From TrEMBL:
E.C. designation(s): 1.1.1.261
Domain of life: Bacteria
Enzyme class at the top of the EC tree: oxidoreductase
Organism: Alicyclobacillus sendaiensis PA2
CDD domains cross-referenced by the UniProt entry: G1PDH
GO MF term list: glycerol-1-phosphate dehydrogenase [NAD(P)+] activity
InterPro entries per record: G1PDH (IPR032837), Glycerol_DH (IPR016205)
Protein known as: Sn-glycerol-1-phosphate dehydrogenase
Keywords for this protein: Cytoplasm, Lipid biosynthesis, Lipid metabolism, Metal-binding, NAD, NADP, Oxidoreductase, Phospholipid biosynthesis, Phospholipid metabolism
Amino acid sequence: MRWSFEELKRLETDCPCGEPHHAIPVERLEVGPGALDEAATWIKARFGRVVLVMDEHTRLAAGDALAQRLTDLGVVWTACIVEPNGQGDVVADEASIVQVLIACGPDVEALIAVGSGTLHDIARFASAKMRIPFVSVPTAPSVDGFTSAGAPLIVRGVKTTYQTHAPVAVFADTAVLEQAPKELVWAGFGDVLGKSTSLADWAFGALAAGEPYCSHLASLTREALETAVAEVRGLAEGRPDAIRHLMEALLLSGLVMLLFGQSHPASGGEHHLSHDWEMEFLRSGRRQILHGLKVGVACGVLADLYRSRVEEAVAAAAEAGLAPWASLAGREHEVRAIVASVPPGDRVRALMRQLGAPAEPEDLGIERSLVSSSLKRAHKLRNRYTMLRLLNDTNAI
Ligand SMILES: [Zn+2]
Ligand SMILES: [Zn+2]
């Protein structure tokens, strides 16, 4: 690993920025071959009875293998195979949550999430409601939210994120990750690539509106971004070391969010755009698109807008005395540096294409009219001072 879990933990109390950060509740983090063995041994030392939360695919990818190891060690386990919905997707909704709750007897001591982001969100929410811990066993490098404390759920068709808890331990077995479907690898890459705009939005919100900021945590998230980008060729070829580095980048990004206590480092306008597309797909009953694919594509869309329109919008806001943006008057060089840190949209799309992944909204079945309407409302999803919000406030979109 290029970064150390212990070093990250030290930042809880000892960050170069001088401010205390939040505690990382994750006690153990393993990435590598043999992590499933480590998971079984660790679970055995902590719990006598667990429920494995998985779906039919992740059961084959890792669930059966983990279950066998638990049996060998004498841990009592049961399986909860979360069923797909009518469209064939496993989703984190009320039906999946209830299915897990029903599968859990009164004496279950922990849930083990075996799968990608959605199964983690289901196990995260259910375990928090049961006041028991959950253990993360990712089966694909698909998202940076494995260690998140928030569980985005779809309840009665509306997506809301509930604050729950982070896993007590993460065991990412690279032998499992290497077998992940390529779409999930693309999604993980897209989620990290989205940091190109989220980091810029974070710096911009701090400059324009005094949003909380830590340059050390920003540099760690940038390290995650650069690690993934440096591996694009290896990822396209499915090389094991590249897959491992992508997973480490995703975990680093997720742990930085835990330290910061909010999602600013890893979620800016591109995530808001992606959430808006997701809600529109829910409303119209369309099949869901992987989170990271939407984020990667949204990042390209915003990169074009940010590079071409933000400086002008800042000048317009200053002239109109529009709060809080007018405070940027006289700080144009800092704005320029932030805008310059955003890669050109063509570069973002080229990286996605190099993988073979979708790069444009149309590639995801997202029509231009939806892109236009989303750009005008996505900034309202979160109370953040992103450049997307500035462009809306100044009618530059
Ligand atoms: Zn700091
Ligand atoms: Zn994300």
